[in-house]
Design brief:
alpha+beta, four-stranded mixed beta sheet
């Protein structure tokens, strides 16, 4: 680019990942000031610094300037390079924190991305690797990102606070994305899940399964919850257990919910029965919200629609999460794109909560590194 792209300025530590990911894709530098400036411990946290290092690994020629206290960050993005990368994530946040952003960037790198991430695979804050594998990967396939090398594999599980998990993510490269028309959510046809336990009795997973089924069996017979008990070195460094549930509809959309036990030494002990029941209720809540994309992946779907060919894309979502609303504002500042938002109140054909139909015309973003299809 011959001309210096117009730099954007923000204040505060919120939505740091959104700003850096959109900056990388649009090529516009971003300056973020007052990052926890009034905090007792000011500046960037370890997990944010680790995220910036990860961006540096998958790009070529990025310029990152951080002041001494870590309260100001200037990021001038380089070219998305990709290739084979290994990264040790901070154990303060889950691998999902890093993976969500990689899902946005991976289709547009120069060399197909194959990345090994180490850290916490399942925690109570970020989407777990199980949920991203079950919901975000099928979503990317709708946009035409698919192939032999498209996979997300959990090699080891790691629970907080120790971590010790490991996942491998590989993604093929695409020149352009297909526009999508996801307006019919369909009806729930089956529920699948994964109850996992590490460094505790394997019986814990079975107790979770029984309690989750006690609620879900009232609604649908086709339920299968796998149990996954990892042993030895594959079980990470800390004990814990949890459950992730995914409901699949007749039109091929996936809605998910998940819960994990409290980290060792923090909070009260959780009974596996309670965890299973609560997770089942969370899934029912997510199904009530409905839409063609669950609340975890709303922003990913909207980003891929924005970057699609210059054609109309439509998606029906449940109520927008605050994170998604802020993401729409950022899309406007980075890509000057506005969505047409129509509310669809729940009526005869739409069950559950009020829905939102999001429509936009893609900006025709193409992967510059990939000259031939």
């Amino acid at each position: 680019m011959a001309t210096q792209a117009h730099s954007l300025s923000y204040a505060g530590c919120n939505f740091l990942r959104q700003r850096l990911v959109l900056s990388t894709l649009s090529g516009r530098p971003v300056k973020i000031r007052k990052i926890r400036a009034r905090d007792d411990n000011p500046g960037l946290r370890d997990f944010e610094a680790s995220f910036i290092r990860l961006l540096d690994k998958i790009t070529n020629g990025s310029r990152i300037e951080i002041n001494q206290t870590g309260t100001t960050l200037y990021y001038q993005p380089g070219l998305l390079y990709g290739g084979s990368v290994e990264h040790d994530c901070s154990v303060l946040r889950g691998i999902g924190y890093y993976l969500e952003s990689l899902l946005c960037l991976a289709p547009f790198v120069k060399h197909p991305l194959k990345i090994v991430l180490r850290g916490v695979t399942n925690d109570q804050v970020d989407p777990s690797v199980d949920v991203l594998k079950a919901t975000a990967l099928p979503l990317l396939k709708q946009f035409g990102i698919d192939g032999e090398s498209f996979e997300l594999k959990i090699v080891r599980r790691g629970m907080p606070p120790g971590g010790g998990g490991e996942v491998v993510f590989s993604c093929p490269v695409r020149k352009v994305l297909k526009p999508i028309q996801l307006t019919d959510p369909g009806k729930i046809k089956r529920i699948r899940g994964m109850a996992y336990s590490v460094r505790v009795s394997p019986q814990m997973a079975n107790r979770i399964v029984d309690s989750a089924r006690s609620i879900l069996n009232k609604f649908i017979p086709d339920i299968y919850i796998y149990t996954d008990h990892m042993k030895g070195v594959n079980s990470g460094k800390s004990p814990g257990f949890g459950l992730s549930l995914v409901a699949e509809t007749t039109s091929g959309t996936f809605l998910s919910a998940e819960l994990a036990s409290n980290p060792q030494g923090q909070g009260a002990a959780v009974l596996p029965e309670d965890l299973g029941r609560n997770c089942a209720r969370l899934l029912l809540e997510e199904i009530y919200r409905g839409g063609c994309v669950d609340s975890t992946n709303q922003s990913l779907a909207l980003l891929l629609m924005t970057l699609g060919q210059q054609d109309v894309s439509k998606v029906l979502l449940g109520p927008l999460s605050p994170y998604t609303i802020e993401f729409l504002r950022h899309l406007k500042s980075f890509f000057q794109i506005m969505f047409k938002i129509e509310t669809k109140p729940c009526g005869e054909e739409l069950k559950g909560g009020d829905k939102v139909l999001m429509t936009c015309v893609g900006i025709g973003f193409s992967n510059l590194s990939k000259t031939l299809k």
